[in-house]
Write a structure and sequence with these properties.
Residues 61-186 form the Poly A polymerase head domain. Adds poly(A) tail to the 3' end of many RNAs, which usually targets these RNAs for decay. Plays a significant role in the global control of gene expression, through influencing the rate of transcript degradation, and in the general RNA quality control. GO terms for molecular function: ATP binding; poly(A) RNA polymerase activity; RNA binding. By secondary structure, this protein is of the alpha+beta class. 51% of the residues lie in helices and 8% in strands. The protein has 23 helices and 10 strands. 39% of the residues are buried. The longest helix is centred in the C-terminal third of the chain and has 19 residues, at 356-374. The protein has an 8-stranded mixed β-sheet. It has a two-stranded parallel ribbon with strand order 9-10. It has 2 domains: 5-234, Beta Polymerase, domain 2 (2-Layer Sandwich), CATH 3.30.460; 272-435, cca-adding enzyme, domain 2, CATH 1.10.3090. Bound molecules: adenosine-5'-triphosphate and magnesium ion.
C-alpha cells in the first residue's frame, strides 16, 4: 500500500504533463484546503459521518467521483461515494446500518432509505492477461489496490479526484483538476483500451456532457465515433439502467442529441433510430424531442415522471408504423396496436431491457390511443376510468403538439374530464350525431407548445 503520509508531506506539485497517459504523471497533485472551494458544509452529514468513522478506526477515507467533481463545478452532488483502504467486511463491521452488496466486487451501502453512502475499497485496474476477454471487455474487476491504482482505473480524469477527510485536500493523480478547469472530459489512459474494457463509458461521457456542459477532449471524442458499435455487446439490463440515467436526470433532450450524434442511439434503439434517420418526415423527431423536453421540464418543476411514459415515446414511431401496416392489411385499430406493441417491445428488449412493470404500462398508454380517438358511447366512460387514462391522454396531447391532427379530440377529452356526469352524457350523445368524425390522418402542421398539463399524474 502506498504510504499516504509520504504524499501528504510533499508540497503541492503542479502537473507538468498533460495527464493523458499513465506513465506521464508520477506524482499526484495535492490541492490543499486553502486552494479549493469544497467546504464540509456542502457534504451530507451521513457522508461526513462515514468518512470520520473510517478515519477514527485508522483507515484512509476519501470522497470520490461525481460528488467531488460536482462540488468543484458548483453543482449539488446527486450522491456521495466514499473510497477507502478498509476491506468491505471491515467497513460493514463499523456501521450498524450497513450491508454488503455485489457478488464479484463487494461494496458496502451505509444507511438505508433515501440517503445511501456507497463505500468502495480501493480497486486495481484490470490486467490484460486475466481480467479482460478477447474483445478487451472487463470480465473481472475484483482486485483490491492502492489509492493510486484506484485513481487510474476510473473512467474520466474529472471523476478521479479524491477529497481527503484527514486534511480536506484534494488528490489528483490523472490531471482531473486541469481538465475540470479547461472544461474537458478526458478518458483516462488509452482511449481504445478503455472503451473496449467498458463501452458504457461512452454513454457516461454523453451523460456528463449533457449534465455539466463540458466538452470532450479530442481523442476521447474521436474514439466514441470509432467504437460506438461496441455498445451492442452490453447486457440489456445494464443498458436499461443507463437509459434511465440518460433520459431521466433532467437533461434528456441534450443527452438524446448527443447519443444520436455519436451513433450510440442506433445500437440502443435500432427500430426507432432507423425511422429517425428518414429525413423526409420530421414528425418522429419532433414527437420524441417534445416528449424529452417535457420530461426535463417536469423534473425541473419537481413533478413525478415514469419510465413507462419515456419508453412509450422512445418506441412510438416503430409502433405507430407497424400498427398502420397491420391496419392496411385489414386488422382493426385496437388489435393492430396490441400486435404492433408486442412486436416492437419484444425486439427492443433484446438490446435494452424494459422490466414488465414498465412495459405493461407502456402498452396501456399505446392501446388507449385508438380508444381515445374513437370515444364511442359507453366506451368513453370506460376509457376515462382506466387507471392509465391520464398518461394516455397526455400522450395523445403530445402527439397533437408534434403535428398530428388530434387537437379537436384532445380538447374534447380535456372538457370531458371536467364536466359533471350529466353533461358528459350529452357530450357522448352529441358525438353520435356527428358524421364524418375526423380520422387520425397525419397532417403537416404544428400546434402551440406542449401544455403544462402534459404527463401529469402518471
Ligand atoms: P453521477 O453524478 O451520475 O453519480 P458519478 O461520476 O458519480 O456521476 P457513478 O456512476 O456514481 O457516477 O460512479 C462513481 C464513480 O465511479 C465515477 O465518478 C467513476 O470514478 C467511477 N466509475 C463509474 N463507472 C465507471 C466505469 N464504467 N468505468 C470506470 N470508472 C467508473
Ligand atoms: Mg455518483
Amino acid at each position: 500500500m502506498l504510504s499516504l503520509n509520504k504524499i501528504f508531506n510533499k508540497l503541492v506539485k503542479r502537473n507538468k504533463t498533460n495527464g493523458s497517459s499513465r506513465q506521464s504523471v508520477p506524482e499526484p497533485i495535492i490541492v490543499p484546503r486553502s486552494e479549493h472551494s469544497i467546504s464540509r458544509k456542502q457534504i451530507s452529514q451521513q457522508a461526513l459521518k462515514v468518512l470520520y468513522t473510517l478515519k477514527e478506526a485508522g483507515f484512509d477515507a476519501y470522497l470520490v467521483g461525481g460528488c467531488v467533481r460536482d462540488l468543484l463545478l458548483g453543482h449539488e452532488p446527486k450522491d456521495f461515494d466514499v473510497a477507502t483502504n478498509a476491506l468491505p467486511e471491515q467497513v460493514h463491521k463499523l456501521f450498524k446500518r450497513s450491508r454488503l452488496i455485489g457478488r464479484r466486487f463487494k461494496l458496502v451501502h451505509v444507511g438505508f432509505g433515501r440517503d445511501v453512502i456507497e463505500v468502495a475499497t480501493f480497486r486495481a485496474p484490470p490486467e490484460a492477461s486475466n481480467h479482460v476477454d478477447k474483445q478487451g471487455r472487463i470480465v473481472q474487476d475484483n482486485v483490491y489496490g492502492t489509492l493510486e491504482q484506484d485513481a487510474w482505473r476510473r473512467d474520466f480524469t474529472i471523476n478521479a479526484l479524491y477529497y481527503n477527510i484527514r486534511d480536506f485536500s484534494i488528490i489528483d493523480y490523472t490531471g482531473g483538476i486541469k481538465d475540470l478547469n479547461a472544461g474537458l472530459i478526458r478518458l483516462i489512459g488509452d482511449v481504445e483500451t478503455r472503451y473496449r474494457e467498458d463501452p458504457v463509458r461512452m454513454l457516461r461521457a454523453c451523460r456528463f456532457l449533457a449534465k455539466l456542459g463540458l466538452k470532450l477532449e479530442a481523442e476521447t471524442e474521436s474514439g466514441m465515433f470509432a467504437w460506438a458499435t461496441l455498445i451492442k455487446d452490453i447486457p440489456p439490463a445494464r443498458l436499461f439502467d443507463e437509459t434511465l440515467k440518460l433520459y431521466m436526470s433532467g437533461y434528456a433532450a441534450v443527452a438524446h442529441e448527443l447519443v444520436c450524434h455519436y451513433g450510440l442511439f442506433d445500437h440502443l434503439y435500432p427500430q426507432t433510430a432507423a425511422l429517425l434517420h428518414q429525413e423526409k418526415d420530421a414528425y418522429p423527431r419532433t414527437m420524441l424531442m417534445k416528449a424529452l423536453e417535457n420530461t426535463d421540464k417536469r423534473i425541473e418543476a419537481g413533478k413525478p415522471i415514469t419510465p413507462a411514459f419515456l419508453f412509450a415515446a422512445l418506441l412510438w414511431e416503430p409502433v405507430r408504423q407497424e400498427m398502420m401496416l397491420l391496419m392496411e392489411k385489414g386488422m382493426p385499430d385496437i388489435p393492430a396496436m396490441q400486435r404492433a406493441a408486442s412486436e416492437v417491445v419484444s425486439q427492443q428488449i433484446q438490446r435494452v431491457s424494459i422490466p414488465k412493470r414498465y412495459s405493461l404500462v407502456t402498452r396501456d398508454i399505446w392501446t388507449l390511443q385508438p380508444r381515445l380517438i374513437k370515444r364511442q358511447g359507453k366506451r368513453a366512460f370506460r376509457t376515462l376510468t382506466h387507471p392509465k387514462f391520464r398518461a394516455a391522454y397526455d400522450f395523445l396531447a403530445l402527439r397533437s403538439d408534434a403535428g398530428e391532427p388530434l387537437d379537436e379530440i384532445v380538447d374534447w377529452w380535456t372538457a370531458f374530464q371536467e364536466k359533471p356526469s350529466t353533461e358528459q352524457q350529452s357530450m357522448v350523445a352529441d358525438l353520435g350525431k356527428v358524421t364524418g368524425r375526423p380520422k387520425p390522418k397525419r397532417r403537416r402542421r404544428r400546434r402551440k407548445p406542449a401544455s403544462e398539463a402534459q404527463q401529469d399524474s402518471h
